[in-house]
Design brief:
Length: 87
């Protein structure tokens, strides 16, 4: 059987919380066009992501990638920090 490498999904978002150990909450926003009125609406989803070294702070813009289930709600892993928050 040939090896087929799956392409993992990635998302870019803002860190909302880092109060847990080795975990962060990332809010990913997207713009969706309203079906009837045509106005663009912001929709957001929060993902729990694994941050093993506790590098992220609130306000950082990060890239996360899909992985195997790590806990009940954690299915994403921190890939890299794109931009650090200004303190």
């Amino acid at each position: 059987m040939s090896e087929i490498k799956k392409i993992k999904k990635t998302r870019t978002g803002t860190v909302v919380s880092n109060s847990m150990e080795k975990s962060i909450v990332v809010r990913v926003e997207r713009k969706v066009r309203h079906k009837l009125y045509g106005k663009y609406i912001k929709k957001s989803v929060k993902y729990l992501a694994d941050d093993p070294e506790n590098n992220c702070n609130i306000g950082d813009i990060v890239k996360i990638e899909e992985c195997r289930p790590l806990s009940k709600k954690k299915r994403w892993r921190l890939r890299d920090i794109i931009r650090e928050a200004v303190v």
